[in-house]
What does this fold into?
Amino acid sequence: MAASQGVGRPSPKVKSFILKIASRCNIDCTYCYVYHKGDSSWATKPKLMPPEVQKQAINRISDYCTAHKLNEVRLTFHGGEPTLFGAREFQQLCEYAQKNLPVDDLRFAIQTNATLITSEWIDVFRRFDVSIGVSIDGPKHVHDRHRIDHQGKGTFERVRLGLNALREAGLSFGALCVIPLGQKPLDVHETLLDLGFKNIDYLFPDVSLKEHIQISKEFGPTPVADFLIPIFEYWWQNSSLDTNVSIFRQIAGIVMGGVSINDTLGGEGCPYIFIETNGELEGLDVLKICDGDHGVSGLNVFDHTVEDYIRHEGLASMALRGDIPKPSLCSSCPEYTTCGGGYLPHRFRPTDSEQALGNFDYPSVWCADILSIFDTVRSNLEVSVSETILRRKALARVKEKRSREGS
Ligand code: SF4
It folds into this structure.
């Protein structure tokens, strides 16, 4: 099954594992890539990750840490909705991980819709210092358009109760907000600030080319940029507010010559692995929006090691290693090295190509938005494309010197 990777390239160190401990969700967001983008594999998986899968997953990660002398690991609990797993079971899983992972720096994180937060969950979050990410789309009238329950009712008030409980317990939490196209950006941002979020990330909607054509008709050619730029300008002018907006920090960092901190921009690879409730090893689950099984490796924690997955020949493993070439159509773009073609699932086009890679050899559907946002960040930072390139070269030299001195 395993295939060798590019000659001479070292394996990336994977320090981030995403455990899908629940494959179902208590709510039913209309845009969800798990349930509403044509992939129904969730229905065949256990509703909750069984104990034998939990233990085997941790044991595989442990073996990997030992073999690679890793001293830090981040375990992120995802779903579906991970709080369906149960607070007591979650506590036992964290205890098992603490006991069995041979690292000094073990961090836990959870991505939740915050509608099922109880005092038991709060105790566990506190005890294991779990970093809490909450999915929310802004004010009630915006949030409740898409984030609805299985009866079609909006969930904002239930999220607000969950946030209140977390805040009263003194826990901090970050927001993940899927960019609500066509909505008033500052209304959304100020609502998130009012709700107590200090860390906010705005996500580009995960859409296919077909959906994007419809979106352009409805909202114009750059609806993501139209939403993000006013928030960037507000954030830039109010930096004393001490709020982190991840996407802006990421773009500013890249523009200043740094490398991308995640796989949404830069084309550098995505060193994290998903483990499904049935133990399957997967990468980049958003690939579910693309026709075909591009994220499916066929590997699982019972029969395969983490290293098997990293070396696998499938598209998701190639993405993990950073082995997927940037789109050829992007080669003359000034942001070629900084944007890198955008997020892999957004580069998909259904083509007749016999190789999966051929379907991803296209610029992001959000290309025009990305260019517009980079342009705005550049003019505020007063850093041109050529200066970014010079800074990158200088930083690469420093890195090389340090690694020579360290060796
Ligand atoms: S901005 Fe567009 S053309 Fe440029 S690298 Fe990104 S996706 Fe490609």
User: Anything to note?
Assistant: The two ends are 34 Å apart (CA to CA). Confidence is low (pLDDT under 50) at residues 1-8. The CA atoms of residues 246 and 340 lie 18 Å apart.
